[in-house]
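sorry for the late reply, my laptop died twice this morning and i had to redo everyting from scratch. anyway the thing you sent over, i finally got around to it. pasting the sequence first so we're on the same page, its 159 residues, then the predicted structure underneath. double check i copied it right bc i was rushing
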Amino acid sequence: MTLLAAMIREMAELLDGEDVVASVGADFETKLHQHLFAQPATIDVRILEVDGYPAGYCAFYMTFSTFRASPGLYLEDIYVRPHFRKLGVGRKMMQAICKIARSRGCCRVEWVAPARNRAVNEFYESLEVPVVTGWNLYRARDTISEMSEQAQFDSEELQ
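ok and here's the structure:
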């Protein structure tokens, strides 16, 4: 957990998201552990080692495509530590993720990348993966509590 938390913090710093990680508080590693080892697990994480050193990690979870009536895999994070970049580590991680997706019968692997990070977008373009256009990403984060309090139906009533 300590190693994974450290790499997540490294990536958050790179993406100017340290405040989001810090807002979780002192129980960050405990919460990670809870979701990684829940039954069923909320998220899968893989750490890639190169010559015995942790080179990076990826975190993903299962989704479902109602249009294709098949599961999908959503790549939440893929992070390669600076020392290991430009060595093919990211490509190997993406290949491993696709292998996992295929073994689980997934119809797709999806992820988002920050538009301002040119290096990461060039990497994804080198994989010859098409960019999905025509869709907007929405994120209810700070509004979840307020919206849930306004709900007119209990979750049990949505059947």
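The mean pLDDT is 89.
thats about all i looked at so far, will dig more tmrw
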